[in-house]
Amino acid sequence: MAMTLSEIEAGIKLLSLQEKKHVLQSLLSEVVDAKLDLRDLLTIEAMEDIDNGNFVEHQDVLAWANSLGTASPLPLPVPKKK
Hints:
CopG family transcriptional regulator
C-alpha cells in the first residue's frame, strides 16, 4: 500500500540531518540517472529517424527561420521521406 504524504512527512521528521542529506543525495542521483536514460532514449530515437530518412533538411529549416518576422513567413518545414 502506498504511503500518504503526511506519513512520508512524519517519517522525514524522524530522520537526522545526516540521514536527510543522504536521502536527498540518493534522490538527486536517481533524477540525474533518469534524465541521462531519457536523453539516451531520445538520441537513439532521433538516430533511428535519420536512418529511416525521416528528418527536415537543414536548408529548409534555415529558409523557414529566415522567413519569420517577414510579411510572408514560410510554413513550418516537415520531414521529407528520402
